[in-house]
Each structure stands twice: as structure tokens, then as C-alpha cells.
Known about the structure:
By secondary structure, the chain is of the alpha+beta class. The protein contains 8 helices and 9 strands.
Amino acid sequence: MFDKLAQEIKEARENLQFTHESIASRIKIDKKFLENFENGNFTFLPDLYIKAYLKEIARVLELDEKIILKKYEASKHGKTFEDESKAPQVIKEALPQSPVINHATVRKEYSPIDDKPTSEKINKNKIIYFSIGGSILFLLVIYLIFFKGSSDQIITERPFEEVIQETKERFVEQASTTDSLMLNIKTRDSSWISVKIDDSITKEYYLRINQSIDLKAKTNFTLTIGKAASVEITLNGSTIEYDRGRGGRVLLFVDSSGVKNITPQRVAIDTNRIR
């Protein structure tokens, strides 16, 4: 089912003359994981971890990460993935354009009536245009004298610093009424993280070494951290400490009062499924 994908990964590694050990050291995984992929075994870990490792391996082997993940999904369902970008393009034959007819030339050549304006008509048009322009100018002067000039309102220029301060205060007030919790998550090593915001929206992230994300919520966060030993959490600018257990997987609840460990535990991997 995964034979073609496994063969593609293996050939890409051999073409670049990479060993299992060199790739494993680059993306911080056990070399047995890569050996399992090349042998067509894609079921020895949860689906989320398989996708994360496939993406990292594709990046190191200079393969298209999105295409590799699509091939994995297709193989998982027993289908064959076809790259649409490589499909033959159908070239439409250009239709002959109809000749352009100059109607002005035809009317000039075949019309029995001479439409050329006389000098008398031109003079009349000029008089009309000047009259309209003079009327508009007169109304504008009346408006400026009797209406615009009668306003007693005095416009004063506000200092630039005052405008900046008002903008900051408005932003802080708006932020306090919407998302009052600002959470920053930073990793010293690659780690998988799942975040539920305000008990409704769930997002998943795979952070590499020294990467960080900023999240906002109104009331609380529920965090599932795959490698707690390498993850630092800051709430509204203050670093918060939490029980990391043995450095494996932990489940945290974070609100305005701080952080609470719910069920800290390590990720259990069945080693019998790893060949």
C-alpha cells in the first residue's frame, strides 16, 4: 500500500548520498523511524506524528512536503496520487478574429448628409459653455462668502504624541474586552503541541528548535505538549512554571490564575510494532 512512497523516500536519500544516521541527527528522530518508512511501514506511530516526521524528512531530502503528505493520504486509503501539475495541458486552437470595421469611415463614405459643424454652431456652443462655467463660479463665491465664512469653529492641530497615546489606550481597552489572555509558547527542541482556546477552538502545531507561537484567548487555554522538557510558556508577559513530569507528554489548563497540570503522562509507543 505504501510501497511507492517508501521507494521514493529511499531513492531520494540515496541520490543525495545521505545515511540514515545523518538524516536522523538533522531532524532529531530515531533512525529506526526512517528505516520503517523506507520499508513501507507507516503505522508504527500515531497518524499525527507520521505526518510531522514525513514533512521533516521531505524537507531534508529536497522533496515537495505537500506532495509527500498527499501521497501518504492517498496510499493510506489504497489510492494512487496523481500530480495535477504534471498532467498534459490542452492547448486551445486560436479562433480567427473577425475583421474590424471602421464605422466612422463607412458613414463618411456612404452617408449622403454632410455632418460637419458650421462656424455658427461652434460659436453657440462656446457661449453655452462659458455661461455654465460662469454660473458655477458665481455660486461657489456666494457659498464661500455667506456660508463657509460664517462658521465660528476653530480647528486646532493636536500634538503627535497625544494622538499616539490615545491610539495605544484605545488598543489596550479593546484588547482587554476581547482577548485578555496572551500566551507565548517557545521550544528549545522540536515538539508537537495541541491547543484548545476557550473550550471551543482546537489548533495543532509542530514547532522546530527555537520556534515560538503567540496565542490569544478570552478565558482559558487547554494545552497538550508532546515534549514538555523543552517547552517554555509565558502568560501575559510573565513566565509560568509547571510540572513537566519526566519531560514527556503533559496536559495543562491555563487561565488568568495561572497553570494547572491535568494529566501529565508520557507518550506510550508500542515498540513491538517498530521493526
